[in-house]
Amino acid sequence: MILPRSVKRGFFFSNKSTDFIYTSVIELTKGQTSEKIIVTLNELKTLNEPYYLFVFTHVTTKEVVNIIYAEGADESSYPERSNQFDINTQSVFGTKPVGQWNYTVYEQESDTNTDTENATGIVEYGKMILKPSTDFAYEEYNTTTTFKTYNG
Q1: Percent of the chain residues topping a pLDDT of 70
Q2: Where do the structural domains in the chain lie, given as residue ranges?
Q3: CA 20 to 30 Å from 134, out of 35, 42, 100, 105?
Q4: Whole-angstrom Cα distance, residue 24 to residue 38?
Q5: Three-point CA angle 94, 96, 101, nearest 5°
Q6: How would CATH label the architecture of 7-131?
Q7: Positions of the chain with pLDDT lower than 70, given as ranges
């Protein structure tokens, strides 16, 4: 299976107290109206037709973004292998900071619940990189430098 550029495999994150190996990293670009999230949710699901609660938490600021997808919103041609959902990063992450986010996907029976305590269980977790909408532009300053020397 060929994965789009938005999905990376084999990301290792080390913390002084714990080490994590993420099997996938989602890359999204801020300001896009349509991007794809590709995850593997069917391996651990226990409900017949679950709703998926995606919880994104920014690594530094701890801001949280919740999105709910119905199983029917899966756009994958092979849903038994992977799941593909469309996301509008412009509306979902419009005012949120770029950078690294942790994500956890829960299965649940509700299409409105955003409380992880009321979800049935975790079906996937990983990292998401939210890139800025424009690349960083380096600026160059032309300043004249003068030196005073002692001639004594």
Answers
A1: 82
A2: 7-131
A3: 105
A4: 9
A5: 120
A6: Sandwich (2.60)
A7: 1-24, 136, 152
